[in-house]
Amino acid sequence: MSSPRSAPPPPAAPLSNEREAIIRARGITVRFGSKTVLDGLDLDIYRGEVLGFVGGSGMGKSVLMRTILGLVQKQAGTIEVFGKDLDSLNDRERAMVEQRWGVLFQMGALFSGLTVKQNVQVPMREHLDISPRLMDELALLKIEMVGLARDAAEKFPAELSGGMIKRASLARSLALDADLLFLDEPTSGLDPIGAAEFDQLIAKLRETLGLTVYMVTHDLDSLYSVCDRIAVLGEKRVLVAGTLREMLAFDHPWVRAYFHGVRGGRLAATIEA
């Protein structure tokens, strides 16, 4: 890695037991057959922060995110979102919580047969009772919010670049004015310039919209440029959670290899300078 991206690291959010945990996971255990992927995992994500969630390939980074979203079944543990235990909610209450979060999956997950505008409108059609004209105006607003030109609204996913697909998917995830944003490897597949621009977009949206962001990533530059805290998954649990400086000081073989290795060494030198 030649150098960190140009954006300076954000000021670390103050760490305090009094901070509001938007997501509180306790004792999460997930198994697939005889294989245990997560075992008694605990994690807090606080209001207004960008948390970067990292770990080795196949360790379960995306599994935890999908478990919180209800896409993967857990065998043990509790998950609270916005102070509500998800297991205790009825269908209506669960739907109300889900309307407050947005999800950007790794490959975008746009509907290929719909235009960008129509993709952004999918959550609106499901949850809002508004006129087609207002829906069009809102969709265009979201499309422009993520840095796409208005004429992108009528394009189909096959006509978009990788970066445009990410932005269109982000616009859809914000269609219902989400408070909480889940990002699964948001910069994967992007060139360094596109990845840096996407990081800057996330930072701007967090600042202007007051979002809480849970970012599953392997991108060291994203950790440097946009994340307030980092949580490291290893040995089926969270090994450590804290600031980037705390990651650099943490004495664990995998954590040291990740943050002080060939790719992370120059970043570590920049932070520690």
Description:
It is built from ten helices and ten strands. It has helices spanning 61-69, 91-98, 116-127, 132-145, 162-173, 192-209, 220-225, 244-249, 253-260, 265-272, and strands at 21-32, 35-46, 50-55, 76-81, 84-85, 101-104, 180-184, 212-216, 229-234, 237-242. Helices cover 37% and strands 23% of the residues. The protein has a six-stranded mixed beta sheet. Strands 2-1-4-5 form a four-stranded antiparallel beta sheet, covered by helices on one side.
Q: How large a portion of the residues is in β-strands, by DSSP E?
A: 15-25%
Q: What best-fitting shape do the alpha-carbon axes yield?
A: globular
Radius of gyration: 19 Å
Look at the helices and sheets and give the structural class: alpha/beta
Distance between the termini: 17 Å
- The count of DSSP E runs of length 2 or more, i.e. the number of strands, is 10
Q: What's the story with the biggest beta sheet?
A: 6 strands, mixed
Secondary-structure element order, N to C: EEEHEEHEHHHEHEHEEHHH
**Secondary structure tally, helices:** 10
Helix content: 25-40%
Strand order, biggest sheet? 6-7-8-3-9-10
Task: Sum this structure up briefly.
This protein is an alpha/beta fold and 273 residues long.
Question: Topology, pairings included?
Answer:
Layout: E1 21-32, E2 35-46, E3 50-55, H1 61-69, E4 76-81, E5 84-85, H2 91-98, E6 101-104, H3 116-127, H4 132-145, H5 162-173, E7 180-184, H6 192-209, E8 212-216, H7 220-225, E9 229-234, E10 237-242, H8 244-249, H9 253-260, H10 265-272
Parallel strand pairs: 3-8, 3-9, 6-7, 7-8
Antiparallel strand pairs: 1-2, 1-4, 4-5, 9-10
Helix pairs in contact: 3-4, 3-5, 4-5
